[in-house]
Amino acid sequence: MSDQQNSQQERTLFEMIGGETTVRRIVEAFYPLVQAHQLLGPLFPENIEPVMEKQYLFLTQFFGGPPLFSQQYGHPMMRARHMPFEITPQRADAWLGCMEQALTDIGIDPQLRELLLQRLQGPAYHFVNTDN
Fold first, then answer.
1. What pLDDT sits at residue 77?
2. pTM for the whole structure
3. CB count, 10 Å around CB of 75?
4. What are the alphabetically sorted keywords of the record (predicted)?
């Protein structure tokens, strides 16, 4: 394996997508889609700004950037944080669909988009807590 391939593999998703600027763009493209979605919109507060900021902190950390979420809020414990909300398989699918649309809208390379979505599938379905 060449040195270039080695260094490419060692790069985090956070670095591969362009760091904090791109994570911000993802969050800003994602939440209007979520708010407009009939299954997801009702789960979120009208003032979406605090949610967007937490998502920015979490995705930065989740994609291999600085541990911003943990520094501010402690261990993510995302399943526990989502338990008060009815997360159905359909809502997990919708969340991933909105994320895919946001990634497409901001021009993330298709191969990189697939990597990001694969990485997000685990947590999205892990949060499912009801079939209703």
1. 73
2. 0.88
3. 8
4. Heme, Iron, Metal-binding, Transport
